[in-house]
Design goal:
There is one protein chain. Helices cover 41% and strands 16% of the residues. It is built from 18 helices and 15 strands. The strands form 2 sheets. The protein has an 8-stranded mixed beta sheet. Strand 10 and strand 11 (314-322) form a beta hairpin. The longest helix has 23 residues, at 469-491.
Length: 510
């Protein structure tokens, strides 16, 4: 190109313009200034591409969180400490699943609906604002709908009615948060509700929680006993780079003596370890309370304790005691939900044919239970009585624990009753049982124990072994006692007063 010839005046004008600041704004600068003052209008919000959001996720998540999210396993679990960032990771996991799979349905399940809203609902709103995702939030139903048609449902699983609401849906991702603390049976929730709901899309089930003080349950089996083939992950607050100040504060409290690293609560909360805290366990049994077979060659008396329910299980406990043993043996146990009055009556009759109960005790906590009890008594003519209630249930349990400690109560190992005992604990105040855990068989066993008479057992003096020194000593003592008794009888007889008596032949004298 030929060099342009400029006049001296043109050159001077261009030099002057170059020295002035450029006041023109780019479109991006105008947008940022507008948003900073007025916010983003709903109709003009810019929706970022999925690839951009994924890049941002990698920038904000630390390696342990990313490893959990990117794990291709269809069943996975994460055991974490407090403040380890598990809920933050779950929020990003749900968002990524919803973005990557249009028209998909995800579910986040906490212990209660209120907990789901408190823990993750607002966190999702913050992510929507940060990444400009265009999510529409229905605060009444707790459903977050994405522009591509995907939805995330937030719900709780506090009882069977909450669980029933999840039946029939089809999810690509289901997340259980604080899975070690659910009130319901998590294994049943997974087996009967979530696994079928994940079949259509071969979806993923992810469970995440801190360890609880009860070293039992489905999440414990997965993360500690490595059952059911789950891919497990672990990380703590120390792995969270955003919690360095919190870690320093914990160390400071340890040095000050406020926190004790040897206590079970510290190991669970800050080290992510399964450590059982027996102080909160309601029924304290041990190996001394376990038995295999009921002793033979003695007469057994049977008692049945019943804890009535419908949505909650109706529980049956059959216990046996004998004059020959000081222990109370739990010989049968059964519980089932949704039992009708006729079902309970039929089962009582069936058990009666096998055990011939000396007493049947039924919980009459409500008016309906009392009506059922009176109906059973009238129809069956069986020895049915109301369970003796006390205003001090904790005191009764303490007395039963004393029998457990002495080995005076025997139960089968790995039974449903011991499964309840492993989990059942008191509330924080120690005044009542924690409602998160089943106590139906436990209550039925308590009723049966209260009616048992095993405490009347008296130890029988065993005869000395034949041929021993004790054996011959006992023979001498017995002979001496008989001679003394005979002498007393002879010396105490006055013939003049009482006569000479009669012989056996006089009985036939005519």
């Amino acid at each position: 190109m030929a060099k342009q010839n400029l006049t001296p005046q043109t050159k001077a004008r261009r030099k002057a313009l170059a020295r002035k600041p450029n006041l023109a704004l780019t479109g991006r600068e105008v947008l940022e200034a507008t948003v900073g003052r007025f916010g983003i209008p709903e109709k003009t919000r810019t929706i970022r591409k999925t690839s951009d959001i994924t890049l941002n996720f990698k920038r904000h998540l630390f390696p342990e969180q990313l490893a959990f999210i990117n794990d291709p396993a269809k069943r996975k679990a994460a055991l974490c400490t407090r403040r380890a960032g598990k809920s933050f990771a779950v929020s990003r996991y749900l968002i990524q699943e919803a973005l990557d799979n249009p028209e998909t349905l995800c579910v986040y399940i906490a212990r209660t609906r209120e907990a789901a809203k408190r823990i993750l609902w607002n966190m999702l709103k913050q992510a929507d604002k940060q990444y400009r995702l265009g999510i529409k939030f229905n605060n009444a139903t707790l459903i977050a709908r994405f522009p591509n048609g995907s939805e995330i449902i937030f719900t709780g699983a506090n009882d069977s009615s909450d669980v029933d609401k999840l039946r029939g849906a089809a999810f690509s991702l289901a997340v259980l948060d604080e899975a070690a603390f659910f009130n319901i049976n998590v294994k049943e929730l997974v087996r009967d509700v979530l696994s079928p709901a994940l079949l259509d899309s071969d979806g993923t089930l992810a469970m995440i929680s801190t360890p609880s003080e009860v070293c039992a349950g489905f999440f414990f089996d997965i993360t500690q006993l490595e059952k059911y083939g789950y891919s497990t992950h672990e990380w703590s607050i120390k792995n969270n780079p955003y919690m360095t100040q919190a870690v320093a504060a914990i160390d400071r409290d340890v040095r000050a003596g406020i926190l004790n690293p040897t206590e079970p609560s510290y190991k669970r909360e800050y080290e992510g370890l399964w450590v059982k805290d027996d102080r909160s366990i309601v029924y304290k049994y041990s190996d001394v309370n376990l038995y295999d077979e009921l002793p033979e060659n003695c007469f057994w008396e049977y008692i049945m304790g019943i804890d009535l329910g419908y949505h909650d299980p109706t529980a049956f406990i059959i216990a046996a005691f004998s004059d020959d043993h000081e222990e109370l043996f739990i010989v049968e146990q059964f519980k089932k939900k949704n039992m009708l009055t006729s079902d309970v009556e039929a089962l009582i009759r069936e058990y009666q044919t096998h055990f011939n109960f000396s007493k049947i005790v039924i919980d009459t906590g409500g008016g309906a239970s009392r009506m059922v009890l009176e109906t059973f008594k009238e129809r069956t003519a069986l020895p049915i009585e109301p369970a003796k209630k006390s205003g001090d249930k904790v005191g009764l349990i303490t007395m039963m624990n004393a029998d457990l400690a002495r080995g005076l109560i025997k139960v089968k190992e790995n039974s449903e009753l011991t499964d309840e005992w492993d989990k059942l604990q008191y509330n924080i105040a120690g005044t009542h049982e924690d409602k998160r855990f089943d106590n139906h068989l436990s209550d039925a066993a308590l009723y049966a124990w209260m009616e048992s008479r095993h405490f009347l057992y008296e130890e029988k003096v065993k005869a000395p072994k034949f041929g021993t020194a004790e054996y011959y000593k006992k023979m001498e003592d017995d002979m001496e006692e008989r001679l003394l008794r005979q002498q007393d009888e002879e010396e105490g007889h006055d013939g003049d007063l009482w006569g000479i008596g009669y012989s056996s032949e006089d009985a036939f004298y005519n």
